[in-house]
Amino acid sequence: MKFSKPTTFLRVNQELTDNQLLHKAAALLGVSEFQLFVDAWQAWYDEKPSEKRIEPYFVEFLDHRLVPFWVRNHVRQILSNEELLDRESKRLMVGTITYYGPLLAFFVLLMWYLMKG
After folding, report:
1. In 10 A of CB 78, how many CB atoms?
2. Alpha-carbon gap, residue 80 to 82, rounded angstroms
3. Domain residues of the chain, as ranges?
């Protein structure tokens, strides 16, 4: 008996799972998933949690990939503001160039002057 290999099709509009969204938000912010749990707790309950308070939820996430409702809500808010984050990162880049550009020009001119004279 010969079995054919199952055909899998990639759906273009496939929705991301909660875990994938959590990883995407953490990468977008440049923080760890644990830090995202801490931030989500603080945003939902309006209090800074201890590591011991977050740890059981995070272990549950690592073991069973269960995302608590307050983390899911926080992640959705972050990703809905992705455009805002993109604009903010561009603004920070322009600010950095504006701040360090004249300093760089000064040092280039100083080095040119010292090497010439």
Report:
1. 22
2. 6
3. 18-80, 89-117
Q: Taking the CA of residue 18 as centre, how many other CA atoms within 13 Å lie in the half-sphere pointing to its CB?
A: 13
Tell me the residue type at 81. Answer: N
Count helices and strands in the chain by DSSP H and E runs = 5, 0
Give the tens place of pLDDT for each residue, 8-54: 444 554 688 989 999 988 888 888 999 999 999 999 999 999 999 99
Cα–Cα distances (Å) from 14 to 26, 36, 70, 112, in that order, read: 20, 24, 23, 56
pTM of full prediction above 0.70: no
CB neighbours of residue 71 within 10 Å: 27
Gap between the Cα atoms of 19 and 50, Å rounded:
23
